[in-house]
Description:
80% of the residues lie in helices and 3% in strands. It has helices spanning 2-34, 37-46, 49-53, 57-71, 94-131, 133-164, 166-177, 191-195, 198-237; strands at 81-84, 87-90. Strands 1-2 form a two-stranded antiparallel sheet.
Amino acid sequence: xxxxxxxxxxxxxxxxxxxxxxxxxxxxxxxxxxxxxxxxxxxxxxxxxxxxxxxxxxxxxxxxxxxxxxxxxxxxxxxxxxxxxxxxxxxxxxxxxxxxxxxxxxxxxxxxxxxxxxxxxxxxxxxxxxxxxxxxxxxxxxxxxxxxxxxxxxxxxxxxxxxxxxxxxxxxxxxxxxxxxxxxxxxxxxxxxxxxxxxxxxxxxxxxxxxxxxxxxxxxxxxxxxxxxxxxxxxxxx
Length: 238
């Protein structure tokens, strides 16, 4: 009975490991994107944000750096003042600040998911290498191949959905993620959406999806090659 129970626990742990791979990669690349100053500056340079807002690019870049700092700070609310027309200008209104508080909550959740899945996968690998070093490598490689395959398939589906109708995709994400309408901003007066227009979000989604897909392919090919090589080596030794 105990052996059967342990067998089921091992099967469950293996599947959790496999499912952790896409979650880890998605949360990881979201964290990278959120903290990438160059991605913010891409929006400013590509979508003419200086002309739209009337704020010089150097001030926009300072604001982007402060947004990144806010996401990683203990501050509840975001407060940014920039120079516009040679005077101090409070960048975001109350509705935008409340929305950024909600966004920060999602980002901190993303950090926790990234940490949990990473720790679980590390403990899983360490446990199996401690339990049976001889078979742990192939077992881990097999699980990585499964996780990479699921990741690639999931990102392919989400990528097709995003590219085919990004507005619907983007709206659905906000309806699922937020319980209020603070995200419904006016592009004619709200600087948050002027700084980060729809094109920026499309580019960000494509960047994240492409990065995850490439990582999944690398993991998949690497694990497949290892499984193939070790199988051939074992057959040769026999």
